[in-house]
Design a protein that fits this description.
2 domains; 201 residues; HATPase_C_sf; alpha/beta; Sig_transdc_His_kin-like_C; Heat Shock Protein 90; 3-stranded parallel beta sheet; kinase; 4-stranded antiparallel beta sheet; EC 2.7.13.3; Rossmann fold; phosphoprotein
Length: 201
């Protein structure tokens, strides 16, 4: 689309023109999209424009009404601004009924920037994890996340159960555990828990 300042100037000029030639009734500002175009319309119920003058109204100081005088430079400037933005300014009018000016600007489809890095799911397939988590909800959520990543998880709620699990497991498959213990849980465990568990790793 075009420069916001230019668009604002065109709309201001069109509204000023409508106010100048409308004593009563309505002035309506519309905005909509039509395919690959953005349309801004200013419709008024003013004196209207003589059909023989309609093709000339974007020229400077064209006389549109004997009582109101010419259009001045506003429509000329607006038309040139529209062209500079790749658009067009057009008008339709019926004398004693009103006029409608339409600004059409091309829409440019925005494209999202390509991310520099692509997030990849962490694969934990084949890992056997021992999770120490004393909060049941946190434990369940963590286990589900780890299982989704392919890990085999055994979850316990305290250090004593962790040691018991390690004693049983290592008799069958020695040294196959990876310990996971969140800091918040570790701070609530007995002071020497890590010394008792460390020997299993």
């Amino acid at each position: 689309m075009g420069d916001p300042r230019r668009i604002r100037q065109v709309i201001t000029n069109l509204l000023s023109n409508a106010l100048r030639f409308t004593d009563e009734g309505h002035i309506i500002l519309r905005s909509r999209t039509d395919g690959e175009q953005w349309l801004v319309e200013v419709e008024d119920s003013g004196c209207g424009i003589d059909p023989t003058k309609l093709a000339e109204i974007f020229q400077p100081f064209v006389q549109v009404s004997g009582k109101r005088g010419g259009t001045g430079l506003g429509l000329t400037i607006s038309s040139r601004l529209a062209q500079a933005m790749g658009g067009v300014l057009s008008a339709t009018s019926t004398p004693e009924v009103g006029s409608c000016f339409c600004l059409r600007l091309p829409l440019r489809v925005a494209t999202a920037p390509v991310p520099k890095t692509v997030n990849q799911a962490v694969c934990l397939h084949g890992l056997r994890l021992l999770l120490i988590e004393d909060n049941p909800l946190t434990q369940r959520i963590t286990v589900e996340m780890l299982n989704t990543s392919g890990a085999q998880v055994v979850a316990v709620g305290n250090a004593a159960h962790a040691i018991e699990t390690l004693q049983i497991a290592n008799r069958l498959l020695p040294h196959w555990w990876i310990l996971i213990c969140p800091i918040s849980t570790a701070l609530r465990l007995p002071g020497n828990w890590h010394s008792n568990i460390r020997r299993w790793f």
